């Protein structure tokens, strides 16, 4: 059997790709190639001089240092533009003049941040808050300042100090949440009008877990008015609230039923908002409010703060149809959804609208994915013919596909305005904050939007709630009973002054930003001397002898470093760490080999060395090892390999051999080698405050001289970071510059040849062709160069991207690969980068404790006649500094100004076995995120996928809890929020099945399943007062990848107590007349200025009394123009009055990509797709202007097609004909992960299956397209949907093109490279002038790859050439062609003669009423258009048109749901259709007629079909709770609730964590009630020893009485089954039982072991005499030979001697049947398991349940 299985596995490997679905094929092929490419790159490093840890890729999450929290900018509750919001502006400030645990922290510890000099303490009970004397009012905002926990969030989220009241407390007085359960709590008395309400005051957005949550509130407010919110009940996700209707079914974010509680006055600078948790908390407009919903024109404004991860779609607000189908698209909505329906990435804000007459809805999207945890202003408008969407003041979308009124007056009662979700029960609910909503019955314009509400002299809005929801219940009511959002009180967001300075697309950190580096480059003050500590880790013997490197080497190398860096103001301080350990010294340290690769049956060059047994024998095939030599107590060389288990251990036995020479087994502790990673782990030398330099050796094939850790890598500051040097290249003559080179990597420098020799491909956007600070090595003063060791320019180089001449290359730069005698300098840009990274990352490596300076000059943000306001950036280190550090202090980079603490996972484990490739291990989820290309499989993330190379051996996640990842944290804290980076998902439903929080007391808190996007981190608010130590994530998506997880605490965490804000000194020339200007804010207003006078402003940083160098200067003339003043001047492309990016006009006053701006202040809009063909778009915008054809030329699209590989159902060749689809963009692989093919694109799908079967081979494929009108070709244009490239491939795929003439001859044009970067591919045609021009009728395309996809081919011809000319040495002019006027029926034709100006004749065609234009050939036009213009080209009209009767077509089912249409007179213009309702639907309204109108649409329906349910069913064991449910006539969506009787619970909930007593049944589509019931909960079975001794009145159900019958009645005992499913007590055995059971008989091949004897209560254990058999209980008439496959016998573990002195179960009924083999669910049908007892082999014997859907029988 074993041999058969092994043979089968071999067959699987041969046929692996044929046995998988196409979906799985693509993902696995991609991941396999990625893993193999990573292995090959690692092996390639064997020939490299240098390598760096974690090679960077293009960043998708561009932000600050990826492994650090976003603290480089001070936290603010920011909003984009003040003019967009209906709230009072905040006052501007104005003046002239590494981690330690807190698990045992003292509850009385002062956890508030200290605010520097000039401060006073404000005491609140047991806590103190530090408030600046002159900023006491301002401190309300500072204390709650917050930024996103994700380093890539560009905008700042709302307050962490929002407040709710918990109604679940039993205290008479609510208490303030202090975060520590053992700490004291402040007692506050909160009043509602004249009654006292009981509840616990707590913060729900960012709970304060320090001392006092209320430090931000003035004392008078707390004492007099209190702070109210809605009332909430907090519990575990799985818990249930018994009291109806507060039953809870979701996470603890859902509010209770106390809707409408009065909210007291909100303190100044604070606001109220609605928080939706994504459950069922929709609000609807209260009919009693009398709010009129717009029926025609309207505008709606929203102010929202969405969280990361949403349902798809997530509806924020909308008007919905409440009279027909719950999935009706009629109405409008605003929300978040992916551009690709059902997608998992690129989620954007959207505006969708459908009038009642339109056949389908129209959706317009934002220009970029939404920013989670940031306040965003949205406005959608509709003016009757155009939809428009505005985001943060910029118009980002427009469409004219909808027109007319939304609905008829009759349907007004059928429309409902909802907040937080739609009317369906599909879970399209919003998660996040809504801070405002305004509804206008007019279309507001772009100008109106920017003016602000106070400057608009139009009608008041119909509905307006903005930053004040105190009276929300007057206008809104819960859409579903018992569900509603929370009302939270948060600080009003401050206006954002300047957008962050982000890295370029090819950069990763702030120090890659061009402006930052130029600041360091141009101002010497930023490059003052920095003294760096580094440590040589020298390993020697126990007695100190034989060190790895000598003292002479160390001194020589140190001197070389000092001389190299001295001129750049960088000095180095040397120390030596001697490790005296003979055992380690004698080991061979491998510099580039992973130990798991040794003996993996593959020769890995980086592991090939004699002391590894040449990669465990993989790289050296030894002679035969005879069996008699094995296990003979001698190490036999020929047997010492993985193939013979290293001589069965003899070669790793210290008593047999010298293991330091012979032990090659990677699993042996005595092996002769170790990896450098193991060395670092063993020594565990932290890199927090010094650079560690280790030494390692090369393999036999390596030339590696050194390796370094990038400053942005996870390991940069821990014990796995540092530098690794080859001792031969350290401090030796001719090799001193190697360490200088590696030091450059440590300080953030790339190789100078990065943009040429280290690019991903020729289309890599980071490829460097000219010197640039945004591509290549990100230095503009190092010219592009290929990798070379020559000390001269490379000259002409022919590589995969063509022949290139390289001159003036930096071959003598330290970051090149040339020798010591050639390299001698760093460039200014490189020096600037090194100084920046020292400030950003290596603060603790510096001896100088002075604060780093501000990198850029201050910026003017506002001016008036007598004042100017300036703003500056904080230093790149961040706005905090370490002051008086304690043992418990952490790095201030992980803290925020108010003491919020961020921490990533510290340890990770998973019960899931790691993939055989060695990648995707749990350790990849430790630390900060480092996946730079989300939504694609990555090697830097954890994934539960197994058997990557054995595709048929499926490994689904366990059905119980799925695939599990456990992440632990170094410091248990009370979390405020949780952030999870899920960077790849393949499942269509919720990717995360559950998130379980595990406290430091081992309690579990479930957060339930979660929706995620792969390019947006999931952010969740956490509702618990307990310290959380670990997180357990579960998924059923075995291909999902998790990159990182982050916990964020509430404010005032004691771990951040030593972190203080920096103090900024503003220095002006001429000097201020008053006192020294010192402040912690980043904005300063100077009111002592004179018009036309010049001033110089510089800012200095102060920390602990030490001053930084001054910032670069701002030269400012008061009254002069500046970027951000709203006026265009100088080099400005635009000026929208702010310094913000993302709104069309950047902070440098340049138009952003995709935007156009007009007027002053600039009004910016996304021009692509707005339906307007502007002059600058004519050659570029296909969507607005159509496919561009130059003047004098004509393009025609292919009309016929044939291909070598095609399938009519999935990839027809005709997909390449006609105009290309505008929605199909070119990408490297046409079929993305799990993407379905499209019929409007051709790709050789059948050739791909061949390639997958023959991996590594690519078959040439061809496509032939024909054209209706042969012509003299000037160009062939090919539109690609995929260029066939795979990530990392250097060579592009090619196409060989041939033209076919009318005579059947082929003419070759040559071979051309394919690239999505150069799409379409335009190939110009050159004709032989000595021959007559030929007419092209077809084009043949031969592709080198089967992964190319084509969406269209065009043939371009010109009027300048004639096919009849024998020679065309001179071009003939394009003279005017004349065409006969077209003869059209049902149309009027007006023609004008051609002129020299137009070069052709024109005719205007106007169809009569009731007719519409139809294009028979040529360029199309919008539907139902009655007029068009024809142009005469080459003697023929450019289009052939006709006027056809307008036909509305049969009415769509969505026009009137639940109706049947009858159109006996047809569906053309003026005709009528009638409709009748399908039972049980009932017609509502008087008119059942529709009329086809002249726009091709049916008229408004004036009636609808309504479905109702009869009276709700009677549910056994339950009582109906809702009186309104009695009777008939219930609308669809009506919910009736029942309460189960005592002892009964909702059917199906008995097996869950929480048993539900409240049953909900809903009236669903079809007029039926949902099924459901209540079932009694049984008490546990009574012990088997009492079998036959008791009787029960009602079995094991509620209130059943069970009585134990003893021989003496006095010992009889009765117990009762309670409503909780528990017995009131336990039975006690009768005492007067003296008999024993007889020995059980050994029958039916069953034997018994009775070690306890045979007395009452004794237990015997049955076993089967035959091997691989199980003892089971069978019915009386059944034997082991007569068992049927469908029978499910119970296995017997033991039998018990009962009080009746009989064995239970009866031994006579116990038989032995064959055991199950352990191969269920392995993809093979094992017939021995094909029975119910073995779960039918896990479904392997049925094609419908087999994962591969292909059954392979194994006998």
UniProtKB/TrEMBL annotation:
Keywords: Disulfide bond, Glycoprotein, Repeat, Signal, Sushi. Residues 1-24 form the signal peptide. Residues 131-140, 170-185 have a biased composition (Basic and acidic residues). One of its GO terms (biological process) is cell surface receptor signaling pathway. InterPro entries: ConA-like_dom_sf, LamG-like, MetalloPept_cat_dom_sf, Myxo_disulph_rpt, Notch_dom, PAPPA/PAPPA2, PAPPA_SD_C, Peptidase_M43. Residues 106-194 are annotated as: Disordered. Residues 1377-1445, 1446-1507 form the Sushi domain. SUPFAM superfamilies: Complement control module/SCR domain, Concanavalin A-like lectins/glucanases, Metalloproteases ('zincins'), catalytic domain. The keyword Disulfide bond applies. PROSITE patterns: SUSHI. Transmembrane segments: none annotated. GO terms for cellular component: extracellular space. Pfam families: DUF4215 (PF13948), Laminin_G_3 (PF13385), PAPPA (PF25900), Peptidase_M43 (PF05572), Sushi (PF00084). The keyword Disulfide bond applies. GO terms for molecular function: metalloendopeptidase activity. Belongs to the peptidase M43B family. This is Pappalysin-2 isoform X2. It comes from Salmo salar (Atlantic salmon). The lineage of its organism: Eukaryota, Metazoa, Chordata, Craniata, Vertebrata.
């Amino acid at each position: 059997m074993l041999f058969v299985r092994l043979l089968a596995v071999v067959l699987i490997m041969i046929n692996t790709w044929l046995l998988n679905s196409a979906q799985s094929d693509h993902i696995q092929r991609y991941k396999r190639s990625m893993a193999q490419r990573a292995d090959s790159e690692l092996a390639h490093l064997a020939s490299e001089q240098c390598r760096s840890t974690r090679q960077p890729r293009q960043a998708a999450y561009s932000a600050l240092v990826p492994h650090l929290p976003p603290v480089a900018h001070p936290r603010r509750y920011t909003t984009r533009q003040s003019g967009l919001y209906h709230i009072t502006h905040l006052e501007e400030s104005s003046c002239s003049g590494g981690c330690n645990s807190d698990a045992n922290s003292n509850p009385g510890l002062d956890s508030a941040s200290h605010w520097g000099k000039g401060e006073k303490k404000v005491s609140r009970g047991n806590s103190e808050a530090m408030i600046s004397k002159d900023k006491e009012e301002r401190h309300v905002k500072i204390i709650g300042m917050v930024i996103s926990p994700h380093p890539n969030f560009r905008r700042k989220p709302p307050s962490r100090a929002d407040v709710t009241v918990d109604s679940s407390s039993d205290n008479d007085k609510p208490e303030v949440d202090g975060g520590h359960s053992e700490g004291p709590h402040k007692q506050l008395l909160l009043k509602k009008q004249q009654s006292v309400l009981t509840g616990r005051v707590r913060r729900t957005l960012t709970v304060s877990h320090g001392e006092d949550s209320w430090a931000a509130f003035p004392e008078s407010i707390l004492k007099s008015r209190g702070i109210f919110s809605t009332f909430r009940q907090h519990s575990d996700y799985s818990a249930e609230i018994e009291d109806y209707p507060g039953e809870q079914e979701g996470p603890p974010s859902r509010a209770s039923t106390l809707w409408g509680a009065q909210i007291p006055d909100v303190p100044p600078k604070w606001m109220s908002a609605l928080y939706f948790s994504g459950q069922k908390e929709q609000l609807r407009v209260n009919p009693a409010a009398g709010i009129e919903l717009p029926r025609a024109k309207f505008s709606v404004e929203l102010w929202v703060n969405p969280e990361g991860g949403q349902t798809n779609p997530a509806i924020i607000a909308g008007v919905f149809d409440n009279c027909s189908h719950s999935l009706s698209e009629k109405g409008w909505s605003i929300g978040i959804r992916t551009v690709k329906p059902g997608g998992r990435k690129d989620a954007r804000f959207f505006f969708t609208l459908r009038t009642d007459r339109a056949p389908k809805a129209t959706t317009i999207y934002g220009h970029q994915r939404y920013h989670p945890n940031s306040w965003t202003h949205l406005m959608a408008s509709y003016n009757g013919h155009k939809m428009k969407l505005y985001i943060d003041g910029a118009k980002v979308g427009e469409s004219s596909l909808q027109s007319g009124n939304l609905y008829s007056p009759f349907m007004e009662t059928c429309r409902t305005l909802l907040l937080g979700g739609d009317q369906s029960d599909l879970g399209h609910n919003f998660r996040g904050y809504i801070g405002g909503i305004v509804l206008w019955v007019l279309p507001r314009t772009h100008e109106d939007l920017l003016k602000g509400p106070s400057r608009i002299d139009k009608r008041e809005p119909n509905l307006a709630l903005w930053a004040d929801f105190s009276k929300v219940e007057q206008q809104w009511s819960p859409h579903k009973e018992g569900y509603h959002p929370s009302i939270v009180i948060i600080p009003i967001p401050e206006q954002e002054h300047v957008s962050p300075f982000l890295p370029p697309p090819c950069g990763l950190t702030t120090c890659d930003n061009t402006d930052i580096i130029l600041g360091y480059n141009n101002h010497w003050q930023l490059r003052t001397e920095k003294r760096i500590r580094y440590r040589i880790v020298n390993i020697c013997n126990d007695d100190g002898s034989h060190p790895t490197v000598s003292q002479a080497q160390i001194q020589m190398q140190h001197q070389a470093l000092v001389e190299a860096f001295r001129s750049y103001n960088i000095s180095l301080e040397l120390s030596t760490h001697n490790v005296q350990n003979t055992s380690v010294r004698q080991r061979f340290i491998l510099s580039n080999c992973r130990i798991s690769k040794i003996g993996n049956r593959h020769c890995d060059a980086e592991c090939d060395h004699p002391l590894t047994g040449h990669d465990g024998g993989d790289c050296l095939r030894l002679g035969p090892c005879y069996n008699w030599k094995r296990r003979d107590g001698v190490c036999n060389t020929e047997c010492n390999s993985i193939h013979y288990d290293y001589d069965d251990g003899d070669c790793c036995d210290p008593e047999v051999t010298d293991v330091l020479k012979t032990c090659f087994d990677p699993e042996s502790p005595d092996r002769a080698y170790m990896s450098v990673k193991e060395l670092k782990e063993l020594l565990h030398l932290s890199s927090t405050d010094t650079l560690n330099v280790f030494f390692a050796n090369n393999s036999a094939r390596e030339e590696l001289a050194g390796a370094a850790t990038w400053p942005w890598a996870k390991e940069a500051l821990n014990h796995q970071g540092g530098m690794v040097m080859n001792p031969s290249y350290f401090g030796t003559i001719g090799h001193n510059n190697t360490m200088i080179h590696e030091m450059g990597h440590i300080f953030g420098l790339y190789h100078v040849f990065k943009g040429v020799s280290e690019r991903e491909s020729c289309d890599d956007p980071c490829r460097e062709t000219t010197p640039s600070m945004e591509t290549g090595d990100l230095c503009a003063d190092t010219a592009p160069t290929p990798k070379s060791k020559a000390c001269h320019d490379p000259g002409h180089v022919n590589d995969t991207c063509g022949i290139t001449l390289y001159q003036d290359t930096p071959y003598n730069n330290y970051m090149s690969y040339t020798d010591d005698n050639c390299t001698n300098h760093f460039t200014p840009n490189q020096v600037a980068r090194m100084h920046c990274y020292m400030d950003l990352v290596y603060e603790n490596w510096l001896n100088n404790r002075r604060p780093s300076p501000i990198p850029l000059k201050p910026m003017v943000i506002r001016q008036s006649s007598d004042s100017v306001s300036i703003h500056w950036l904080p230093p790149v280190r961040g706005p905090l500094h370490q002051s008086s550090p304690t043992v418990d202090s952490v790095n201030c980079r992980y803290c925020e100004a108010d003491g919020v603490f961020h921490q990533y996972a510290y340890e990770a484990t998973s019960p899931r076995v790691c993939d055989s490739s060695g990648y995707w291990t749990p350790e990849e989820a430790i630390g900060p995120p480092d996946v730079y290309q989300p939504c694609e499989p990555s090697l830097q993330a954890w994934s539960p996928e197994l058997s990557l190379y054995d595709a048929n051996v499926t490994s689904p996640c366990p059905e119980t809890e799925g695939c599990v990842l456990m992440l632990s944290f170094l410091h248990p804290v009370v979390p405020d929020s949780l952030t999870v980076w899920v960077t790849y998902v393949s499942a269509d439903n919720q990717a995360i099945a559950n998130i379980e929080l595990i406290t430091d007391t081992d309690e579990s808190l479930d957060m339930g399943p979660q929706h995620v996007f792969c390019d947006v981190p999931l952010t969740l608010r956490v509702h618990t007062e307990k310290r959380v130590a670990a997180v357990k994530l579960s998924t059923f998506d075995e291909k999902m990848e998790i990159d990182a997880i982050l916990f964020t605490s509430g404010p005032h965490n004691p771990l951040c107590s030593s972190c203080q804000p920096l103090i900024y000194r503003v220095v002006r020339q001429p000097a201020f007349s008053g006192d020294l200007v010192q402040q912690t804010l980043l904005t300063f207003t100077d009111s002592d200025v004179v018009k036309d006078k010049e001033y110089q402003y510089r800012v200095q940083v102060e920390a602990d009394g030490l001053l930084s160098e001054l910032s670069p200067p701002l030269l400012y003339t008061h009254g002069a123009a500046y970027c951000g003043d709203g006026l265009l001047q100088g080099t400005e492309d635009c000026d929208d009055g702010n310094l913000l990016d993302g709104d069309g006009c950047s902070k440098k006053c340049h138009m952003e990509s995709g935007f156009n701006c007009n007027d002053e202040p600039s009004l910016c809009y996304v021009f692509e797709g707005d339906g307007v063909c502007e002059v600058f778009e004519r050659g570029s915008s296909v969507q607005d202007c159509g496919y561009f054809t130059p003047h004098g030329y004509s393009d025609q699209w292919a009309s016929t097609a044939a291909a070598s590989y095609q399938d009519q159902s999935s990839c027809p060749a005709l997909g390449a004909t006609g105009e290309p689809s505008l929605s199909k963009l070119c990408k490297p692989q046409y079929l993305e992960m799990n993407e379905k093919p499209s019929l409007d694109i051709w790709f050789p799908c059948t050739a791909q299956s061949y390639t997958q079967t023959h991996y590594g081979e690519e078959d040439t494929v061809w496509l032939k397209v024909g054209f209706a009108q042969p012509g003299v070709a000037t160009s062939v244009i090919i539109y690609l949907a995929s260029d066939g490239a795979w990530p990392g491939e250097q060579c592009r795929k090619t196409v060989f093109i041939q033209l076919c003439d009318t005579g059947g001859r082929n003419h070759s044009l040559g071979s051309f490279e394919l690239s999505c970067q150069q799409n379409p591919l335009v190939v110009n045609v050159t004709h032989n002038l000595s021959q007559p021009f030929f007419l092209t009728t077809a084009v043949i395309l031969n592709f080198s790859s089967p992964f190319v996809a084509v969406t269209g081919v065009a043939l371009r011809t010109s009027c300048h050439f004639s096919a009849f000319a024998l020679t065309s040495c001179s071009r003939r002019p394009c003279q005017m062609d004349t065409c006969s006027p077209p003869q059209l029926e049902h149309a009027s034709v007006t023609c004008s003669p051609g002129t020299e100006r137009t070069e052709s004749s024109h005719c205007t065609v106007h169809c009569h009423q009731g007719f519409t234009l139809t294009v028979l050939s040529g360029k199309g036009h919008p539907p139902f258009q009655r007029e068009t213009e024809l142009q005469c080209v080459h003697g023929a009209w450019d289009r052939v048109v006709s006027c056809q009767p307008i036909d509305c077509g049969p009415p769509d089912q969505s026009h009137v749901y639940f109706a049947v249409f009858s159109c006996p007179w047809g569906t053309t213009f003026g005709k009528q259709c009638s409709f009748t309702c399908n039972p049980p639907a009932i017609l509502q309204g008087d008119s059942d007629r529709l009329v086809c109108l002249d726009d091709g649409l049916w008229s408004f329906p004036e009636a609808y079909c309504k479905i109702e349910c009869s009276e709700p069913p009677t549910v056994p064991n339950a009582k109906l709770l809702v009186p309104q449910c009695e009777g008939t006539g219930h609308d669809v969506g009506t919910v009736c609730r029942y309460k189960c009787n005592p002892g009964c619970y909702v059917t199906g909930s008995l097996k869950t964590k929480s048993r539900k007593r409240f049953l909900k049944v809903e009236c669903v589509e079809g007029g039926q009630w949902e099924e459901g019931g209540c079932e009694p909960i049984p008490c546990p079975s009574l012990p088997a020893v009492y079998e036959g001794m008791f009787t029960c009145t009602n079995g094991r159900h509620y209130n059943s009485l069970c009585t134990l019958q003893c021989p003496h009645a006095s010992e009889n005992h009765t117990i009762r089954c309670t409503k909780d499913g528990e017995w009131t007590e336990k039975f006690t055995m009768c005492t007067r039982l003296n008999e024993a059971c007889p020995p059980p008989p050994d029958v039916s091949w069953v034997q018994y072991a009775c070690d306890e004897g045979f007395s009452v209560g004794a237990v015997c254990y049955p076993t089967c005499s035959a091997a691989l058999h199980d003892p089971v209980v069978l019915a009386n008439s059944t034997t082991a030979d007569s068992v049927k496959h469908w029978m499910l016998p119970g296995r017997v573990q033991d039998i018990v001697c009962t009080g009746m002195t009989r064995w239970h179960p009866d031994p006579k009924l116990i038989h032995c049947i064959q055991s199950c083999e352990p191969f269920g669910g392995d993809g093979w049908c094992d017939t021995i398991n094909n029975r119910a007892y073995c779960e039918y082999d896990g479904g392997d014997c049925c094609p419908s349940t087999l994962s591969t859907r292909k059954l392979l029988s194994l006998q």
